[in-house]
Amino acid sequence: MSSFFVLQKQYEDLARDEIIAISKSYDPKSNIKSEPRLVMVSSKVPWQKIASRATFARYSGTIENTFDDITKIDLSIPTPKSFVCRTINLSSKNTGSSALERQAGGILSKRWGSKVSLSNPHVIVYLIITDSKKYLGYADCQISPSHPKKIIKHPHELDTKLARCIVNLSGLKEKDTLCDPFCGTGTILLEAESMGINGIGMDFDKTMCKITRKNLAANGFDSQVINSGYEKIQDIMGTIDGIVTDLPYGISSRSSVSPKKLIQDFVSVIPKRKKLVIVYKKGLEVDDISKAKKYEIYRHKSLTRVIAVR
Ligand SMILES: C[S@@+](CC[C@H](N)C(=O)[O-])C[C@H]1O[C@@H](n2cnc3c(N)ncnc32)[C@H](O)[C@@H]1O
């Protein structure tokens, strides 16, 4: 059985790799095909599981088959009480989406004897049009990730969507342990624990540690927070499955080390066999991550973030 994920337009590469990383973490044998803004996954993982984690998937469900002639479409599912047809046009042409939906709706309604419900359908039938194929898919619900509460914010925090995405890129799953040695307000730890991943955060700033603890407590989470410099990570390396972190963008008042030197020193203490996902300000690239897969996220004219996955 194949699942489909229609990606949002922005950050398409990131969105695609996020789905791939989640799928492979649960089933390394997942077979993945993709087209522009569409990823199809054949694996043991139910699509709902991937959709509940993936940040940048807009629509998801099961792919049934492809079709050429709309009058011959067929779905091998139990007759739904009600349904709706939705066209997702990912092709470069205008496909007459609403006419296609009406036609498909008429055919299925006749075959099933079910009513069409626009507002609360039991099944959504997706007609996904790409430049190479027309896919027929369906879903009996729409699933999107739910983000934990953040009661204390900070101007330098990572946004929750990006934080979730980088946790997903790490390939960590339930019961694994993630370490964020520059945890700030705890955004990464919050997203990780909301997905069942154990967290250990560190920050050399006592106030930041307090904020993180409050943010975790507001969700009933119990990730550990250590008030210390990142160097402490070496003492607990054996208990960690992966490191996901967002490094300082400028020189902190508490440290005289330049942000680039800090990245260099930090990356050099992380063993190559540990999964590492870091976010840093563009321009602070260091040799140890030169071969990492990178994504750029433009924020404003003086800040473009780079995500590096090693
Ligand atoms: C970019 S902020 C992290 C923001 C965080 N991702 C969030 O969403 O709130 C970097 C954090 O690293 C901490 N920091 C800076 N140098 C550090 C060091 N040497 N060891 C540990 N923490 C450090 C700072 O106090 C700051 O909270």
For the structure shown, list the relevant keywords.
310 residues, alpha/beta, VC0802-like, Rossmann fold, 2 domains, 7-stranded mixed beta sheet, 8 helices, binds S-adenosylmethionine
Q: Can you characterise this structure?
A:
- The chain is an alpha/beta fold and 310 residues long.
- It has 2 domains: 2-139, VC0802-like; 160-309, 3-Layer(aba) Sandwich (Rossmann fold).
- The chain is 26% helix and 29% strand.
- The chain has helices spanning 12-26, 47-53, 97-112, 160-169, 187-194, 206-217, 233-236, 259-268; strands spanning 2-7, 31-35, 38-42, 57-66, 82-89, 115-116, 123-129, 134-139, 177-180, 198-203, 224-227, 242-246, 275-281, 293-300, 303-309.
- Strand 7 and strand 8 (134-139) form a beta hairpin.
- Helix 1 (12-26) crosses helix 4 and helix 4 packs across helix 5 (187-194).
- The radius of gyration is 22 Å and the shape is elongated.
Structural Rg: 22 Å
Q: Record the strand order, biggest sheet.
A: 2-3-1-4-8-7-5-6
User: Which ligands occur here?
Assistant: S-adenosylmethionine
Helix-strand topology string: EHEEHEEHEEEHEHEHEHEHEEE
Number of domains: 2
